[in-house]
Design goal:
Distance between the termini: 19 Å
Helix content: 40-55%
Order of helices and strands: HHH
Structural class: mainly alpha
Length: 91
């Protein structure tokens, strides 16, 4: 899997998703309101989720890999599948 690089966080100074998450587990965002900026965002709320059966042993391995990468198993699985489908030229 290619590494997904993270720029240094402006507040936590962390350079990994796990580091950023660990920082915000210990800090309150309201302490940093004066350092934020207003941004425009759009959300697609009608996202559909499809569930697939996964072998128990494979699921355990996925959970361990996700923990190692500092992301959820859902996120890691989606990243890996997207990578593989791009390699297969399936869009």
């Amino acid at each position: 899997m290619p590494k997904h690089e993270v720029r240094e966080s402006s507040i936590s100074k962390a350079t990994t998703h796990k580091g950023i998450g660990d920082y915000w587990d210990e800090h309150d965002t309201t302490d940093f309101l004066d350092q934020g900026k207003v941004v425009e965002m759009e959300f697609k709320l009608d996202t559909e989720v499809t569930y697939y059966a996964l072998d128990n042993e494979l699921s355990e391995r996925l959970l361990k890999a996700a923990k190692k990468h500092g992301v959820s198993s859902d996120t890691l699985m989606n990243m890996w599948l997207q990578d593989k489908l791009q390699q297969e030229h399936v869009y």
